[in-house]
């Protein structure tokens, strides 16, 4: 069956992707810190990811509704703590590949919103696994400080569970750093969905993909 239940990324791994930071912020789970710490999008990329993650984690810890899977509450937190620092339009565009240029501006907007809904609904069940022991340790950034496209490396730990390596890809925009891709256990988010999108679009077109995503989101 098309979408989400993909053989290229099993559900167990998908859940770990969220736990590593996919849905709520591409950097959700980090070491505890006071919520709403100011985010400097022009700071070092690892510091930027750490602050975004800290704020999102604290918001989740203090929201029983979000941990219970309330989609309205999750959407609210995503809109406040995540989307300002994530280029979801770029993520969607790269996942759609060459088909993006074939879509009208209205279809592009609809696809971005449908993809956002799919990510939230698919991974929201992992939020009940957030604990005080969940932490994300950012490695020092050793890339070119002048580069405008970088990868930040981290290790996710949760209690006694094995640590998971998580990589974030960021782009420097006029507004500062934006996160647009994530790699967990060697699997890049965009590449995984690109294969699914291409299959659906080739069979049913852009509108067919949007419809499939929205149906899955209900």
UniProtKB/TrEMBL annotation:
InterPro entries named among the record's database cross-references: MlaC/ttg2D
Segment forming the signal sequence: 1-35
Pfam family, one: MlaC
Keyword annotations of the record: Signal
Name of the protein this chain belongs to: ABC transporter
Taxonomic source organism: Candidimonas nitroreducens
Native organism taxonomy: Bacteria, Pseudomonadati, Pseudomonadota, Betaproteobacteria, Burkholderiales
């Amino acid at each position: 069956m098309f979408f989400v239940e993909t053989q290229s990324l099993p559900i167990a791994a998908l859940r770990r992707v969220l736990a590593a930071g996919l849905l709520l912020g591409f950097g959700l789970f980090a070491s505890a810190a006071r919520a709403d710490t100011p985010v400097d999008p022009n700071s070092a990329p690892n510091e930027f990811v750490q602050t975004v993650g800290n704020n999102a984690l604290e918001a989740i810890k203090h929201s029983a509704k979000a941990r219970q899977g309330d989609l309205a509450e999750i959407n609210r937190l995503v809109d406040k703590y995540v989307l300002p620092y994530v280029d979801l339009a770029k993520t969607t565009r790269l996942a759609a590949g060459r088909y993006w240029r074939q879509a009208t501006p209205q279809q592009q907007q609809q696809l971005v919103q449908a993809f956002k809904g799919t990510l939230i609904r698919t991974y929201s069940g992992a939020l009940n696994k957030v604990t005080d022991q969940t932490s994300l340790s950012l490695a020092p950034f050793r890339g070119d400080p002048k580069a405008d496209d970088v990868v930040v490396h981290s290790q996710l730990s949760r209690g006694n569970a094995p640590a998971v390596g998580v990589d974030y890809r960021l782009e420097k925009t006029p507004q500062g750093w934006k996160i647009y891709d994530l790699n967990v256990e060697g699997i890049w988010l965009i590449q995984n969905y690109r294969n699914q999108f291409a299959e659906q679009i080739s069979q049913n077109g852009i509108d067919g993909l949007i419809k499939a995503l929205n149906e899955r989101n209900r």
